Amino acid sequence: MNNLPSILPFIQELTKQVGDRLLADFEQARVAIAKDDGSLVTKSDRWADAYIKAALEKKFPEYGVLTEESTQVLPDREWAWVVDPLDGTTNFARGIPIWGISLGLLHHGTPVFGYVAIPPLRQNIYGWSDEHGSAAFFNDTPIHLPETSPDPDALSNYFFSACSRSLEKMGRSKFPFKLRMLGVASYNILTVAIGSTIGAVEATPKIWDIAAVWVILKAIGAIWIPLEDCQNIFPLEMGKDYSSRSFPTLVVSHTELLLMAQEITKPFIP
């Protein structure tokens, strides 16, 4: 595929269809059950998973599809979609209006296109990055990182986003920032892209949480640091089961913030 932006209208319409249905479900009673890994799943997750998977396979029959709720082995294909049909299921099940739909497109195991829709907030964040160029957008408006790094003497006026498991791993109860916990791995990281935070850390994101957001952050030049073994996440391995593989991740907006953020997250590193 030589023109990644050309797939945008289809993905926008697909996520709108799924988002409208999920919003309707969100207004009704929601019953969640625990999966083997302890995370929650609802009928809405499984409906969205099946709907998105079928739509992608029909539109892109030569592409593989990896999804959270059904196919978790990366297909041995040149192109493959990675889908989180409902990121933030616990929020969704508990009536908290922050949850989303995430789709990432891989080429030879590396993300080149990502789209994250947050229906309750009416936010759509997407981007692409390959040899032909890169760009990222927030509700169709181009996004860029600020040219200058935040004032180190005024960090208490900035936000840093984390998940609850991150705090446990880091053994921290106090941060030099105003802390926000959103409960949605993809959106947690994307707050750096849209300028809400200057950094974010996730302790246990799965590949469907990060495939789409990785390429968006790359497109705007943010700093992405794998925390598990300091090796590159991508390309992924064809034929590998990613159901239990986590990718501890640190993201910061500017290089000047990296040393301080790495010091905070030191307990992650073996």
TrEMBL record:
Keywords: Hydrolase, Magnesium, Metal-binding. SUPFAM superfamilies: Carbohydrate phosphatase. InterPro entries: Inositol_monoP_metal-BS, Inositol_monophosphatase-like. GO terms for biological process: inositol metabolic process; signal transduction. Pfam families: Inositol_P. The keyword Metal-binding applies. GO terms for molecular function: inositol monophosphate 1-phosphatase activity; metal ion binding. Mg(2+) binds at residues 68, 84, 86-87, 209. Signal peptide: none annotated. Its cofactor is Mg(2+). This is Inositol monophosphatase. It comes from Pseudanabaena frigida.
